Amino acid sequence: MRARVAVVFFVVLLVGSLSAPVVGLGAGGGSSGSSAVAESGSIETASIGSASSSASTASAASSASGATLHRTTTLRQLPDQPGAFEAEFSFRIPDAVTELNVLLTADATVQSAKGFEAGDEKGTFRWTGKTDEPTLRVTLPANRTAVGRTATAATDSSDSISSAASNASPSSPATPATSRDGYSFVETGEWGIVQVPGGFSYRYTAPVGVEETVRVDGPGTTGGDIAVFGPVTAYERAVDDGSGTIRLVVPDAADLREDPEAIFDELEAARTRLDVGAASDEVFFVAAPTEADWGPEGVQYGRADAWVAADAELSDPGSAWLHEYVHVRQGYARSSVGTTSETDWLVEGQADYHAATVALERGLVDFADVREYLAAGERSPYDTDVLAESDSWTDDRTPYVKGRLVYAELDRQLRLATDGDRTLEDVFRRLNAREEPVTEDALLAALEDAGGPEVRAAAEKYTRTKATPEMWDRDAHWEAFDQPVAEFEYGIDADGIRVAGEPWSAWRRGSGENESFGSTEAQNGERVIAVPAGESVRIPATIANTGDRNGTADATLQVDGDVVDYREQRLAAGSTTTANLTWTPTKLGTYDLRIGEEKLTAVVVDDSSVQVTDLTLDPETAAPGDPITATATVEATGDGPGATLLEFRTSEGATEVPVAVAAGDTVTVDRELRFDSPARYEVAVGQQSAVVTVENRSRPPAELEEVPGFGTPAAIAALVALLAVAHVRSLRSRHP
């Protein structure tokens, strides 16, 4: 920590030593006043969910800016302690972070801690600030029992193993991920499938990137949210022309029923078929050994990790493989958004329904199978339960069994009401774009917007009362589901990108030293933009109706798989249009942006990503009111691209000019200035400054007045104050 104070003091000292600084020039200031940077004294709070990053993917924020919070989570199996495992968290904390808390379950047992102390609540550990590389090592119970979509610690952590319980019943051929008694996560001493623990929250005074790594120390692997202990065989398939990956991990203790290639075929097909947004580039599935006393047949946990019983079949209308994959695509169901008690049924009913429709379209099952599967919701005990009143459910499978039937009926009615133009996938996509919990009112409003008041009325009837739809026959099914639909293609108009309302440059992904970032010399590869944190990014989406039917297009902007904005637009066959989609990034890092099949990489940076190396004024002498061109030379710092709102400052105020610089490149930025009164005016950009003389031709230069500002006395006073602050910090570091 002493070294950190010394570095800060050195930077400030350099700034304080500049001659005649302009009023408002800040320490280290590439730009001040950006909304992404907290004003002096203000603090913001950010939270990171449990192991939300993939195991091997790291944010590039550290290359674009030094303000990066690093966390490495190392998991270890404890063969001598079946039912438990060890987790070690190692952090590297940047200066901008002022507080950090690790959030664990109350049953965590601390084995060692460096730089952490117990927090106010059990299971919370607070960073002491005495080291910027704190560590925390704990043991945790691995065995968790299923309670709806959550998991709780098992009361019996013994290593006894019994045969897997079946979820099948005469009225429901399969109901994956039900809340039957049994484990949702387990560790046997020989193998284990466990949750990756350790959410954390932090407070910061400037934008901070987050870089996370999760690894298993010993035999096993992880997707970042679920970890597997013990020897495994790993399979992998590239999807989306190599931009995405599906991983399948089979523990040695598992006997996989289906061929791995067949599983990949169906997961990839579901990935393509479900046009609902929230598509993660990395998907991680585990085939769970069936010898454990599992409650559900599968569990999806975290962003895109899931396990499925190794004996699960693909040729099943409720296939656990497809059911859990639908959960991967339910961005709205994550804890950051979520549902309410009135819409809890939607998560499972939707997953069951879409799993069945994908299986039907893929030829894994026929309509008779799907009809029987959906019709189970008509029978007791589900038929008298009210979906929007969870306390009325007489069976824990009600949201699955009655939920999928109601969801299917609403999809059928929506298709009929719009002649096939709108489906529940469109509503699904809209829910994924929400930033607030999906309430009953929000669901009903989305249905009404898509299909009109009659569809809303049907939803109210089947979710708020005991009314149950009657399953339809084959002819009625094809009438609704076999209608022609409009076909659209979506893309990105890179030339129309705006940041903070200004035109913005996009580069092609480079090669060599610039391989990971934008380069002005590269001609091929994906496009890259660098944007300042906190600024609005507008990306034009190109839309083309390529079919022979009029229809409603849904342009969707996804950021790292999450839907952040969308536009619905009616478009005639053969027509094209453009819709502007927006996103405002708040955290440093590298993000994948997608519209349709086109991708764009956005590197979100702070002011330190650029520096001003030169500033010229032309002319250097002018008459009052004459235009003066200030030209700043700007280059990217570090290995990545840079961006900021560049301030041109004078004693009369400041104006901002957005600027982006490709990796290894230099650009010039011009700003026209005018001064009305004769005087010598100092202009500053970043840490560069220059002086222009404004004079009346009738007055000699010697009579010009200095503009009020930071003269030499002010600079000396500032330096004395900084020395005093540094001395106090030094004393504190010696006496914590």
From TrEMBL:
Matching InterPro entries: CARDB, Ig-like_fold, Peptidase_M4/M1_CTD_sf
Domain CARDB: 531-595
Region (Disordered): 142-181
Domain of life according to the entry: Archaea
Comp. bias intervals (Low complexity): 142-179
Official protein name in the record: CARDB domain-containing protein
Species whose genome carries this gene: Halopiger xanaduensis (strain DSM 18323 / JCM 14033 / SH-6)
